[in-house]
Amino acid sequence: MKYTHVKSLSYSQFKPLVSIKISTFSEMLRVLEASQSQHDRVCPSKLALEDQLLMTLSYWLEYRTLFHTAMSYGFHESSASRIITKIENILIKSDKFLLSKKLQHGKGIDWEVVGVDATDMTIERPKKQKKF
After folding, report:
1. Which of 7, 37, 63, 86 is most buried, with most CB under 10 Å away?
2. Residues contacting residue 100 through CB under 8 Å, at least 6 positions apart
3. Residue 122 has pLDDT above 90, yes or no
4. Cα 128 to Cα 122, 124, 131, 132, distances in angstroms
5. Residues 6+ positions from 72 with CB-CB distance below 8 Å
6. What is the DSSP-derived secondary structure letter of residue 130?
């Protein structure tokens, strides 16, 4: 999903697709534009800043692997990881959005965690007895 396709959507279509309001997306984009480094200006990414933000949001929303997310945008998995991490760090440092990398601790916070092991296991079947 590229920004050129998404920007023409109405509010009722944009929010379910991207999971945030158009105004929040615009504010995130302003924060990203303001924090662009000199390196980004000299060596611009092949992916526009709007599309980098969309890739990050789709990665968070859809719980897809980095491989699948990268393939959707025509990148290698390591490049997608680098872009998503960069966008996450900029948004977290801005303190304008609730994006915490650490779990909250303190009084009144009760975390209950359930772990599920969903690894694949080979089934060991007994060998059939030969009949004589």
Report:
1. 86
2. 92
3. no
4. 17, 12, 9, 13
5. 1, 55, 58
6. P
DSSP, collapsed to helix, strand or coil, labels residue 7 as: coil
Measured between alpha carbons, how far is 59 from 110 in angstroms, rounded to an integer? 27
Dist. CA 16–CA 73, nearest whole Å:
20
Identity at 129, one-letter amino acid code: Q
- Check if the beta carbon of residue 99 is closer than 8 Å to that of residue 91: yes
- Residue 131 — left, alpha, or beta (φ > 0 → left; ψ -120 to 50 → alpha)? beta
pTM greater than the 0.70 cutoff: no
Q: What is the pLDDT of residue 127?
A: 76
Rounded to the nearest 10 degrees, how much is the dihedral formed by the CA atoms of 5, 45, 31, 91?
Answer: 100
